[in-house]
Amino acid sequence: MAEVHQTNVRVNQALRSRLPEVDFAKVSFGTVFTDHMFQADFVRGSWTDLQLLPYGPVQFEPALMALHYGQAIFEGMKAFRTVDNEVVLFRPRANFERFNISAERMCMPVTTEEVFMDGLMRLVDMDREWIPSLDNYSLYIRPFMYATDQFLGVRPSDTYRFSIICSPAGAYYSKPLRVKIESHFTRSARGGIGYAKAAANYGLSLLPTKLAQKEGFDQIIWTDAANHEFVEEAGTANFMFVINDALVTPPVKDTILKGITRDSVVTLARSWGMDVQEREVSVSELVEAMHSGRLQEAFAVGTAATVTHISEIGHEGKVYTLPAVEKREVAPKLLKTLNNIRCGKAEDEFGWLVRV
Question: What is the CATH number of the domain that holds 263?
Answer without folding.
Answer: 3.20.10.10
